[in-house]
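Chapter summary example: a protein plus uracil.
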Amino acid sequence: MRLVRLIANLGYGSRKQVAAMFREGRITDPDGEVLYADDKVEHADVRIDDAPLDPPAGLALMLHKPLGHTCSTRDPGRIVYDLLPPRFRLRSPVLSTVGRLDRDTSGLLLMTDDGGLLHRIISPRAQLSKVYEADLAEPLRGDEAAIFASGTLMLESEKTPLAPAKLEALSPRRARLVLTEGRYHQVRRMFAAVGNHVEALHRSRIGGLSLDGLAEGAWRVLDAADLERLFGEQA
Ligand code: URA
């Protein structure tokens, strides 16, 4: 791919703006030698204002989503893209969230510009487990684990029952729930179906990947080992 297009696709500016950056000598190799728009150079050997380029297409990252941010590109309030470099919103291919977390849910959110990877993660066939911790308004009754594990629980306005889910009581009003699907507001609706209310919700793990100390609001690029872990060990 031509350098101008490659750099413009990473969100650094329009092709016209990137061409101007070349003319201004802001684009160099690692030794500071000025590059020209038709030079043939690897992505890793390009610097803009002495800084390495953002990761190339095929980007996957994990974000510790705080409460109050929506998984949207254009919500009037705070959005998860506000937590990333502004350029990331201008990338082509587009960087999207892998599924969604509600505004009032915190925790592990994956984002990628790789459509194949996205589908592999959300595909029902992958059966990737998602682990949530929920704080509840009412104490657990004791029958929720059996109801959630039954594979027969129907949520309002759904046509098929939920797949079996695993519930572990962490305290009378706190539970860990392991799901293998991702229906709209699923955790909140499951607890509503058993007469409870989720007061706080956090996702701690997807497949074999957990937040591992990543601070709230922080993000990091996933490498091959992370992806192996994601599809490897399950909760
Ligand atoms: N279930 C919910 O109810 N909300 C989320 O954000 C994720 C799962």
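Key point: The first strand starts at residue 27 and ends at 28.
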